[in-house]
Design a protein that fits this description.
Length: 458
């Protein structure tokens, strides 16, 4: 960069979306520059031009010291409108610094999320590709479990993440925006906003799709973004026009891009995003106060109580359909819950069967002992997952009905075949042994059907 007596020359890389920067050189008459706005080490400068479209220069320096020296060399000409806007911005930031200089809660929330994630990684959940079943054990918002009585998952899921990329993106957005939002609302109101938006996001996620295994801070973060938007747009809060435009544009871009991306890709819980956003808009409107000493000096307990009561009422209304699902939804949830339990139970049953077969082949037990142990120890281990799946009340019209019937054939076939083997040995009946073989074949065919159904769902 060179600033001469009559011109301003700048060399550098122009940023290009989704591509490498392009090296460029520009030269402007010094008297064509006006309305120099500096923010830290970044500059925004207007340029006089014959074109109808306004021209401006945006660049950043390596340090604030360099920025200060450059600012002293640039023209000081300002239009009345620009000077007024800059004065209002300066007053706004001075009021913010004076009334709410720090944002401790944001950093505490980030620390809690990072500690939980570190503990999850140590516990074997996975750093990059998290095991969803293990994430459930840490408190994710999985419909069959949450709506099955584990309502605490609505809250704990706000601090659980699916891998390092997931938590890194969420914590970056929270760090970038949360500090400003906490200072605008105050720490206590910020907590109310964050928790209410997170809970609302979790509930809407279940109402949207109760079979999704959901986790992450994004619902609460969308609520903070909604709170920020409603704060700056409310004239009562006396936010300068330039600050309103900056945050309005950035928040709308953030919301629009993320919702579009969520609808265009699988595995993203837009229900939680939308629920958190709407909750943040509503709660932010109720909790916002003008940024002046008089308003902040008032306790305003009634307004906080009204916001808290309204939030509790809204959560209660959303809770009703979750606690009273339709018969179809309840059957699906029972089946999904059974699937979660049956996986480990199936492994236990298979291992018990294999261990007993190994003992028999090694001659460690007699034929009679083998039959008795089959009946008393192994068969009940197949009975347990069968009863879990059979308890789910699904009808032929339910999408999971074919899978349920295939699983009942598989689990029932394994159970029945082992029971028949035990009875055939006890009675020395070859006909029962043949029936056992038929049950084993049917169970194998059912297992193939299960694999086909699961493959088709992916």
């Amino acid at each position: 960069m060179q600033i001469g007596e009559t011109d301003f020359q700048i060399y550098g890389k122009r940023r290009r979306p989704f591509w490498f920067g392009l090296q460029e050189k520009h030269c402007f008459p010094l008297d064509a520059l006006f309305n120099v706005a500096r923010d830290g080490n970044s500059f925004h400068i207007m340029v006089r031009s014959d074109r109808e479209k306004k021209q401006f220069i945006k660049f950043s320096t390596n340090s604030r010291l360099d920025a200060g020296e450059i600012e002293n060399l640039l023209p000081s000409e300002q239009t009345p409108e620009f000077a007024k806007a800059r004065l209002e911005e300066s007053d706004f930031h001075q009021r913010l610094d004076r009334l709410s200089p720090r944002a401790p809660v944001t950093l505490i929330i980030i620390a809690i999320n990072l500690i939980v994630f570190a503990a999850m990684c140590i516990g074997g959940v996975g750093v990059f590709d998290a095991d969803s079943n293990l994430v459930m054990k840490w408190g994710s918002n999985y419909g069959p479990m949450t709506m099955g009585g584990q309502w605490w998952r609505l809250f704990t899921s706000m601090f659980v993440h699916f891998g390092i990329i997931h938590i890194a993106l969420n914590m970056f957005v929270l760090f970038q925006n949360g500090r400003m939002i906490e200072r605008l609302f105050g720490s206590f109101r910020f907590i109310l906003l964050y928790v209410f938006a997170g809970l609302a996001g979790s509930m809407v996620s279940l109402l949207w799709n109760p079979e999704v295994n959901s986790a992450g801070a994004s619902g609460a973060i969308f609520g903070l973004i909604g709170g920020l938007l409603v704060f700056v747009l409310n004239p009562r809060n006396r936010v300068p026009k330039a600050v309103v435009q900056e945050h309005r544009n950035s928040t709308l871009l953030f919301v629009g891009y993320n919702l579009f991306y969520g609808f265009a890709h699988t595995g993203i819980d837009n229900g939680a995003h939308i629920g958190g956003l709407v909750a943040g808009l509503a709660m932010g409107f109720l909790l916002a106060r003008p940024l002046d000493l008089e308003s902040r000096a008032k306790s305003d307990v009634n307004r906080v109580l009204m916001a808290t009561g309204s939030g509790a009422l809204a959560l209660g209304l959303m809770m009703w359909p979750l606690k009273n699902p339709s018969a179809t939804t309840e059957g699906d949830l029972q089946f999904r819950s059974a699937l979660t339990a049956v996986g480990p139970q199936n492994v236990i049953a298979i291992n018990a069967t294999n261990r007993l077969n190994d003992k028999a082949r090694a001659g460690a037990i007699s034929t009679k002992e083998f039959a008795a142990e089959l009946e008393t120890d192994v068969v009940p281990k197949w009975e347990l997952p069968y009863n879990e799946i059979a308890a789910a009340k699904l009808g032929p019209q339910d999408s999971n009905y074919p899978l349920q019937q295939a699983m009942l054939r598989y689990l029932g076939g394994r159970r029945n075949s082992l029971r028949l083997v035990a009875e055939a040995i006890d009675k020395n009946d070859d006909r029962l042994m043949q029936q056992a073989e038929e049950e084993t074949k049917d169970a194998a065919a059912a297992l193939a059907d299960i694999q086909t159904i699961n493959h088709a769902k992916k």
